[in-house]
Amino acid sequence: MKYVAIALATAWFGLTLPPTAPTPAVTVGARPPIPTRADPATRVPPDMLGANIKADVETIVGFARAAKDAKEIGSGQMWGRIAGFPSSDKTVVWAVDQFRQAGITDIRTQSIAQDPKSSLWLPLSWRVTLLADPAFGEGTNDIVLQSALPVGPSNIPGGTLTAPLVYVGTASPAVLQHLDVKGKIAVQLIVPQGHMLFERGAVDSRSEELMKRGAAGVFNLVRLPGNELSRDFSDCGNPCFNIGGRDGWFLEAVLDRAARAGVQDKLRVKIDLQTQAFRGLKATNGVAVIPGKSQETIVLNAHVDGWFDGAGDNGDGLAVLVALARHFSKPENRPQRTLVFVASAGHHTPGINGPRSFVTANPDLAKNAVMLVNIEHVAQRNFSPARTTASDGYREAVADSGEAPIAVGVTNNSPFLQELIDGGPPRFGVNFISERSTFQSGETGGWAGLNVAKVSVMQAPPLYHTTGEVLDVISAPGLERMARFLASFVAAADRASRAQINP
Ligand SMILES: [Zn+2]
Q1: Residue 502, Cβ neighbours under 10 Å: how many?
Q2: Is the pLDDT of residue 106 over 80?
Q3: Interval between CA 288 and ligand 1 midpoint (Å)
Q4: Ligand 1 centroid – CA 460 distance (Å)
């Protein structure tokens, strides 16, 4: 009895072991989000109610979950609503069905063939195992890092690689001059300031330097809460894996303990990896047209594709798009201009671009456009590091009462549109950041063919492109705030002159 207790206490230097099953990235407590500011005298129509829109987000997330269960990609470790696969097409079919049920009759389902020069790299199955050694303490067993996710276009000839680990911190030149990474997996620390995409440039260049110095591969310890899988970064060495927050915390501690004990050379990892480059894929755009008195069009877009559950990227945006289609199809809300709703195949799959295909397939609707509105990542809750800490110092994150900050870009900086957007926070409670902007998102970039005002409504929260982006972190009042703001915004733009929108 005593022997067993001592053995357990000393495994892996006595450190807290990482979780062996998926855990939520963010704790969502019972306290509800900030309610909407609807005047009690005004009855919010059912189409605009947050609870109803969230039910649609749940349906959209369901297409991704079903794809995971059906092992759409390899072993089912990687999933999503992936353009070129049934998960994405089924989502478009659902959206088109909602448009039809709303009474819209001009509905177009348009097929998109992947550019033959492009391919989509996907991991089919993988496992990253930290190998045990008696030097790490009695009872030490191999540990499979649950949050390890290969980064494209990683590939291991033969499918297996075993190599020692070397910690390189931020991998700056000042650090690397002291280190020999040859034949080793370089473990670099990434501390995202909010969104991972802001780290892409630094990760790419540092990884390139590590590979030049002979590293056998790269691990990115992504210091975010939870133990989520993060699909971000590319070309960061071969093979390259992102490692989630909890696993990364453990790995850093193990590297420290092994260094202190002088057994660093015994710290090794075994990587198994199968991948595939997919070509010749086909995807679909779903388009609904509500004709107005004018031929001029206002185009509203939301991409359907998403990695993992994709509740926030872009389940919430698509659900809000559908709510707006229902709203504007009602006779009392009919616009003067023609409204075009695009459930876009998206932009995650190389060689498939929903917006570009729309412009090619619908030249009249595109030519008559006066404005584009791209609805993308709009109702994730904000979160903060938890006050409570784990016994080993690791900090969880807890959802707070509002939504994550929302950036709104107006490409032509139209003062009329910017003023409408300025009215969003006081009138509808949407959490727009305080600075006016002309930014556009990746999905908006596909609309380059429209030479008009392009409005992007977008959150860039830390959980984006991770398994932490689940239904639970979507705010129902936030969905309602966004739907009601956009209904008002589109109606005001519809009443405005072309010159006001495009000065
Ligand atoms: Zn997106």
Answers
A1: 16
A2: yes
A3: 20
A4: 9
The pLDDT of residue 169 is above 60 = yes
Phi-psi region of 201 (alpha: psi -120 to 50; beta: other; left: phi over 0): alpha
For residue 444, report the distance from its CA to the centre of ligand 1, in Å. 10
Q: What phi and psi, each to the nearest 5 degrees, are found at residue 120?
A: -110, 115
Taking the centre of ligand 1 as the mean of its atom positions, its distance from the CA of residue 315, in whole angstroms, is 9
Helix, strand, coil percent content, the chain, rounded in steps of 5 = 35, 25, 40
The amino acid sitting at 352 is I
Q: Which helix (H) or strand (E) holds 112?
A: strand 106-113
CA 306 to chain centre: 7
Beta bridge partners of 372: 299, 454
User: Cα(503) to centroid of ligand 1, in Å?
Assistant: 28
Distance 253 CA to ligand 1 centre (A): 34
Kindly report whether the global pTM for this prediction surpasses the value 0.90.
yes
DSSP string, 165-209: EEEEET--HHHHTT---TTSEEEEEE--SS-GGGGHHHHHHHHHH
For residue 74, the CA-to-ligand 1 centroid distance in Å is 24
Which residue type sits at 474? I
pLDDT at 8 over 60: no
Handedness of CA 179, 185, 186, 188 (dihedral sign): negative
| Structure-token match 């040859």, residue found | 182
